[in-house]
Amino acid sequence: MSEPRPILWTPSKERAEQSRIAAFQRWLKVKNGLEFEDYNALWTWSVSDLDGFWSAIRDYFDLPFSGGTGVVLAERKMPGAVWFPGVQTNFAKQVLRAAESRPDDIALIVQSETFGRSELTWAELAGRVASVATHLRAVGVGQGDRVVAILPNTETATIAFLACASIGAIWSLCAPDMGHVAILDRFRQIEPKVLIAQDGYVHAGKLVDRRAALDTIRAGLDTLEHTVLIPVAGGLDGDMIAWSTLTDTRTEPEFADLPFDHPLWIVYSSGTTGNPKPIVHGHGGILLEGAKQSLHQDLHASDRFCWLTSSGWIMWNAQFVALGQGATVVLFDGASNHPDMLEVWRCVARERITNFGVGAAFVTLCVKAGLRPRDALDLSALRALGTTGSPLTADGYEWVYDAIDPDIWLAPISGGTDLCGAFVGGNPMLPVRAGEMQCRYLGNAVRSFDPEGNEIIGEVGELVCTEPLPSMPLFFWGDTDGSRLHESYFDTYPGIWRHGDWIEITPEGGSIIYGRSDATINRKGLRLGSSEIYRAVEALPEVFDSLVVDLEFLGRDSFMPLFVVPAPGTDLDDALKDKINIAIREAISPRFVPNEIIAIKEVPRTLSGKKLEVPVKKLLLGGDPAKVVNRDSMANPKSFDFFIAYAEMRK
What we know:
By secondary structure, this protein is of the alpha/beta class.
């Protein structure tokens, strides 16, 4: 067991007492007579008395729940937990509450390379949501219908989503830089009725024309009845509806009363085989999880919140945590390094952002660039910095306290698309240790398990969650018997969620994430199944077979090598490498172009023909060649010799 990591920051007594978690604890004492000696005691109560904790979250935040039987958790099991039976609610109603009490305050600030800077008050936001909802109803969109969008992180996506939520339609979003194949792999599964899209955008000063890709996507969606367009690269075509005509109606918001578990949105988190997993989350579960997250992010209505995110990342969805607390959200849409790496920090200074979040990879780029934003900019409004997407190294922590502010609260989080939340993250009442997340989130029964299912402390094990959470998936779209959901999370430890991350829980209650424990690819927080890479690469006649692994481990840069078996008579030359990279870039996204492409003679496989991605990954992360795989279970055991030699070369 290692020694405790050095403390880099400790909150003042005043800062700790003014936090949302401190206020929640005082409320628990007054309302329920509950008092806890420290945070770990509070956490233990929250994962033991699930009824008491989640009903306290509902009551403390005065969430818009009505009806019900009075039962909080009808079935305490995973999968299949039943929360708040009979309750009705609406996610959009909570998010837009500030429009009633503070109509003239700023709800959204948009900084877009394509459209420039703009602001929306709460009244304007609510009015546009109401107008879009009215028009969606007029074209036949009702409860349960799917509305999909290909939009950047601007107010359009925010308004369109809230309009869908208000009427009970189900929302799904992809980023404009995603390839048409990857988008169709997602949207085809859910059979949408309406598509809302932008036909181009400006990135790093250049116009990216997406009209051809949009035509292909529209043609590939057989159930599509209407397309709403935000024209940038061209004009309206055929029967397309202009977005501007959807926002011109003056009307008041209406919120459908929906069952607690009515589907809210569909997000995608890929496994290693098959199509991306269409994960369905519910209105009530996301409301509860978001309210609780606001405690850990210490979000107040007076805050200005910004997370540097693509619209295709789950952190886009997480922006509604801040809106739900009445905070102003700053949407950044553009290249983070244009005209230089200071551009994002200029936005933080100019907009007086108080709570800012980025991918850990962005911090690494700032470190490598020798950036010191505090020397060039006034960051005095900034009091909290979050990171996620991949583990933030101890060097990254030290850079923040040196180059940003020695008195900032640094609060990295780790969770996932699967539950639209964090398992572990920050607490403004606790000290920050280098390379370590401060605590396990309230209500999240996070443990570290060894292969036999025993809980371990101070050692690296599998991240598991031993109790249900309201925001866990309701189901996967199209997974009628629930088998795919079960295989994704519950096949290793029956009845217990296995997330697919390596984690160490410290004796003090902190945690360190060491990267993915499975074959899922994680590039700057965006997760993708290896099957999507294979589909793009192996469609090329020059490629016979392939294997890809993502080497993400604490203290190292993420590195994704792609191993290919060239077709007979073909050499892996620079021209073929370029062709492979183009295929990945166009079909999926530039984010998933490999760091290196290496020729191999054959892909190692099991006797049943499965590619041995996880053993190769473990080997390349330093695993013992004799332990990472049983060669007797391999169809071609000699193929592993190449990877042993490659691992030695990379040391």
